[in-house]
Write a structure and sequence with these properties.
The protein has 740 residues and is α/β, with parallel strands linked by helices. The chain contains 27 helices and 21 strands.
Length: 740
């Protein structure tokens, strides 16, 4: 439709501009819009059509021609125009254009999944037809066949599951296979290449320095992990760790080693501040690094790139990062856990890399203080979710409720009771307790409930309501706990400390321009109490743009990297990969609420009705949630459906000679052996009779000569652990590399 026609019919826009001014802010225009809003008059459209047509003709002239051009369709009752003219039938884009749309990496069928069915393709192609399709039942099928034949996009993979239904054929896209192949090639080709490789002594020194600074000793497996990362020399390495293993903290020990040797380092993650706070490694988001790659800077000047929460990075992004790392000679270290949150896009690269490079796994949970919780979490990792839930219930950590509303109410009651008992100060509340849920809608409900409790208790001051995109509103009051949702690099503008995405803060002021002052605590060992406070003013325009939200509750995804005292989790909507990090955030106690009515399917609910006792409610909630968790499937490599996966790279020996060195050493030893044998033979021929006469028992009865070991065989054997060193032989004090 012509722009001038749209403007002519947009009377409200004209009124708003007249009242607020064409240069007014979005907030001011919204206020003017509300002020000029009039009640709708219930009028039959038929009576208005003549008026609409007259107004349109005054702008465009020939309304019929405009409609025919804007909305082509099948010929009308009078035969209409021919097929090439306006109204001659639906405009069907060429198959190549449709393929580009339905297979678009960012919005197409494989934007979040690695495979799709023909049924999903039929729906996607139909949705891509802006003007529809003719009524022939076979037209869409034929068009999909043409789309599948466009080169460079769809690849057929074996069908999984039932084939009784129609359109079950399964496909992936070539760019998914290319990303998987790139990851595998980089992991294998850059294995044991000496990239950013430190000596064992340098790694041991870094560990010692870290332990002195941290005030505690690393466990044997933690030391092995640090040593492996620093000394193995892999161009691509991967470290898996259970929740609470201290993966990010170990990177501080690695950073100490890199700093001491002049090895430049950087981090890449979805929430940059968490890795930086834990390790001191300067960190940017994965998106920021990909932007650097697009503008040609890549990873120049970076010797080591640490990818934190690597399972949340999708394969396409990982392949691009690895390609940039190969060009720059950068070592990539992925750390994460395949049993925690998966990538939003197609994932699986991290576990495959871990397999190929035979990465280490941290198994010790050093976060949870309660032995029963640790035992339950160990069982969780075996895949027995039902037993884990029962163990948590026995320890008083799992709470069934009849409905979702009841579960949220119980969480808020527990939250209010705990904070009043232990953390009445909002800064202490931020540090020690968190409320978690899988879905934004549940987080919003919990946030509003917590705010209402504090408002009713008289703990909040002046407040203001901000209009948000999409028609929502956000009410903030002085004293509220908020969460920063967008990075604001204020230091770059000389305006004070940065307010970064993920910060939780307290609203400490509202001014006449509806600006919001937020204040947060930063760890500072030199300051009284071990922290200092930093503040920032957030303009109203940024608040209306979504820069802040209430911060009493947050999604489990947003809590990654967070460790607190107590967590309260609403379980509905959380699959296995979301639930596990949700029940491991706190050191002292992690509580889980399960709403029975929301978890059970309608048929079971109709058959059993409401639970008649607390015991029945608990049993049914555990059973329903465990069955839901059992449907979770980890990300994998779709190319494994087409061919055998490559074998892992062989672990290098601690000291391995090159092929040329090995041949030279073999030849040297052979010459030495021949020379020694010849000398011994000559000596033996001179004194043989004399020696036989004096010491006949000294002759080898078999007549064989003892051969020197070949260069491929070790000349030593490990002594028993309790064996003593022979007299006169010094005891070695060298540290051996750990983790190789």
């Amino acid at each position: 439709m012509p722009a001038e026609l749209r403007d002519a019919f947009s009377r409200r826009a004209v009124l708003v501009d007249e009242k607020a001014g064409a240069d007014a802010s979005r907030t001011e225009k919204q206020a003017a819009s509300m002020a000029t809003k009039r009640d709708k008059v219930d009028v039959d459209a038929t009576t208005m059509r003549d008026s609409w047509r007259e107004r349109a003709e005054a702008v465009v002239g020939d309304v019929d021609a405009m409609v025919a051009a804007a909305a082509p369709g099948p010929p009308g009752p009078d035969g209409g125009a021919d097929v090439d003219g306006p109204g001659g039938g639906p405009r069907i884009p060429p198959p190549a254009d449709l393929a580009a749309a339905v297979f678009d990496p960012k919005a197409g069928l494989t934007a979040s999944e690695k495979t799709f069915t023909r049924a999903q393709l039929l729906a996607a192609v139909a949705n891509a037809l802006e003007f529809g399709i003719d009524p022939d039942p076979g037209s869409l099928e034929w068009l999909c066949d043409d789309v599948l034949e466009v080169a460079g996009y769809a690849v057929r993979v074996p069908t999984l599951g039932s084939t009784v239904m129609s359109s079950t054929a399964r496909y992936t896209t070539q760019d998914i296979l290319d990303a998987e192949e790139a990851v595998r090639v980089q992991a294998l080709e850059r294995f044991d290449t000496g990239t950013a490789q430190l000596t064992p002594d340098q790694a041991a020194t870094a560990i010692d320095v870290f332990q002195v600074a941290a005030g505690f000793e690393l466990s044997a497996e933690q030391q092995a992990a640090v040593t492996r990362v620093l000394t193995a020399g892999q161009g691509i390495d991967a470290l898996v760790g259970v929740a609470g293993a201290g993966k990010s903290t170990l990177m501080e020990a690695c950073r100490i080693g890199w700093d001491a040797t002049g090895t430049t380092h950087a981090g890449a993650t979805l929430a940059a501040q968490q890795l930086h706070d834990a390790s001191g490694i300067p960190t940017r988001t994965v998106a920021a690094w990909l932007a650097e790659n697009e503008n040609g800077n890549g990873l120049r000047g970076v010797d080591v790139l640490v990818v934190d929460e690597a399972t949340m990075v999708d394969d396409r992004a990982a392949a691009l990062l690895m390609g940039a790392a190969a060009r720059a000679g950068t070592k990539v270290v992925g750390i994460g856990d395949h049993l925690q949150l998966q990538a939003i896009g197609p994932g699986g690269w991290f576990m495959e890399t871990h397999r190929l490079v035979q990465g280490l796994t941290l198994t010790e949970n050093r976060r949870q203080e309660d032995a029963a919780e640790r035992a339950a979490l160990d069982v969780w990792r075996t895949g027995d979710h039902e037993l884990t839930l029962r163990m948590l219930a026995e320890g008083g950590r799992l709470h069934p409720a009849e409905s979702a509303d009841e579960a949220r109410s119980q969480i808020l009651m527990a939250w209010d009771e705990l904070r009043l008992q232990e953390w009445a100060d909002p800064y202490d509340l931020i540090t020690n307790m968190v409320v978690l849920a899988a879905r934004n809608s549940d987080v919003d409900a919990l946030n509003l409930g917590a705010q209402a409790i504090r408002r009713q208790a008289g703990e909040l001051g002046a407040e203001h309501t901000y209009a948000l995109p999409g028609g929502d509103t956000l009410t903030l009051a002085v004293g509220d706990v908020v969460r920063v949702r967008k990075n604001d690099y204020r230091s770059r503008r000389g305006e004070g400390p940065d307010a970064l995405n993920g910060y939780r803060a307290v609203v400490t002021g509202l001014d006449d321009r509806h600006r919001i002052e937020i204040t947060w605590r930063v760890t500072d060992t030199k300051a009284p109490g071990g922290y200092r406070e930093e503040s920032a003013w957030v303009p109203a325009q940024k608040a209306t743009g979504g820069a802040l939200s209430l911060g009493y509750a947050m999604t489990i995804a947003a809590s990654l990297g967070l460790t607190c005292n107590t967590s309260l989790m609403f379980g509905h909507g959380a699959n296995a990969f979301v639930t596990y990090p949700g029940i491991t955030r706190a050191r002292r106690q992690n509580h889980l609420w399960l709403p029975l009515a929301a978890l059970e399917d309608e048929r079971t609910r109709a058959r059993l009705g409401e639970a008649r006792s607390e015991k029945e409610r608990l049993e049914r909630a555990i059973d329903a949630f465990a069955r839901f968790l059992g449907q979770s499937r980890p990300d994998g490599m779709v190319s494994d459906l087409l061919r055998e996966p490559p074998a892992p790279a062989p672990l290098p020996r601690q000291r391995e000679l090159s092929a040329e060195e090995a041949r030279a050493e073999s030849e040297r030893r052979l010459r030495q052996t021949n020379t020694s044998t010849a000398k011994a033979a000559r000596a033996k021929s001179v004194s043989l009779s004399h020696r036989r006469a004096e010491r006949p028992s000294s002759v080898n009865r078999t007549g064989s000569t003892r051969r020197r070991p070949s260069s491929s065989s070790p000349t030593w054997r490990p002594a028993p652990r309790n064996a003593r060193c022979p007299p006169g032989r010094p005891v070695s004090t060298a540290r051996s590399p750990r983790g190789n």
